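URGENT: need a sanity check before tomorrow's submission.

F., can you look over the Toxin-antitoxin system YwqK family antitoxin record below? I want to be sure the sequence and structure line up before it goes out.
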Amino acid sequence: MGVYQGEVLEWYPNGQLGRRANYLAGQEAGRQQLWQPDGSLRANYEARDGQQYGLIGSKHCITP
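Structure tokens as predicted:
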């Protein structure tokens, strides 16, 4: 149907996990994590009701 549903995993060519995301009816829902090619964490946030709560890179995605 062309929309994501459930857990989505993406890897870098070197085999390192690059992204773990969760979707509900094509929209981000729940925990989302992204890593750099060297394995360091780039983003770790939760998506709820169209909002992101947590850290993306070194910046807060909401004002604390």
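My own read: The two ends are 38 Å apart (CA to CA). The chain has a mean pLDDT of 88. If you see anything odd, call me.
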